[in-house]
Amino acid sequence: MTGLLLPVLSRAARILVCGFSLILALPVAAGLIETVPHIKESVVAVGTYQQTRSPPFRFLGTGFAVGNGRLIATNAHVIPDVVSEDQFEMLVVVLPGDEQTRGVRRVTRVAVDPERDLAVLRLDAGNSLPPLTLSGNGGAQEGQSIAFTGFPIGNALGMTPVTHRGIISALTPIGIPQGNARDLNPALVRRLAGGAFRVYQLDATAYPGNSGSPVFDPDSGEVLGVVNMVFVKTTKENILSSPSGISYAIPVKYLANLIEGLN
């Protein structure tokens, strides 16, 4: 009799454990489900607008509202060096919303940190956006769960914000000294000379267009970093003949320093 009961009890125990594990997993999923709609209210597409061009809007990357809600954080490389104002071209952002409510707002560049590839824009007019909260706990830790929202391949897939999830897989140097001089490039030399710093390596795939996306805590929505696709790879992966596919982010403390005093 005892021999017959053991398999039954064992199976029941397995079911109980599986059910308990599922219960433990639910709050994590529910946290992201509740957080994403709030994040999307603050995420914008960054680009230029020229009415005589087809299409008028040229998508360049992702940004998100910070500070007083009139400031937009993004990567410096997302912002074009020249905007042809004499040809009525404008630097703009596409506001959150569906195709019926989505609008285009002109922005002005107000701060740039070229050493960390960060930039801040200001909405020229109209209402502010809900600003995202920047994490003030000193940075993310390895193994920490993260998510980021942006416009992967926005030119092809459209202005629908997309969320990806992963973890912080490593805190890694922005540039690594090379043993051979031929492996050095100007960007890496400048980075090492200006003071190397650590970036987040992400166990999540970011795509062209995700540059400037907020990396956030799935439960609290606090911003931990800013996705960077171009700047990091030119130094971190300078000896590779083709990109690795690894995604990186700039820690949010550098953005906090950049927006300090802006309004």
UniProtKB/TrEMBL annotation:
UniProtKB keywords: Hydrolase, Protease
Source taxon at top rank: Bacteria
Coiled-coil segments: none
GO terms, biological process: proteolysis
Gene Ontology molecular function, alphabetical: peptidase activity
Source species of the chain: Parazoarcus communis
InterPro entries: Peptidase_S1_PA, Peptidase_S1_PA_chymotrypsin
Name of the protein: Serine protease
Nucleotide-binding in keyword set: no
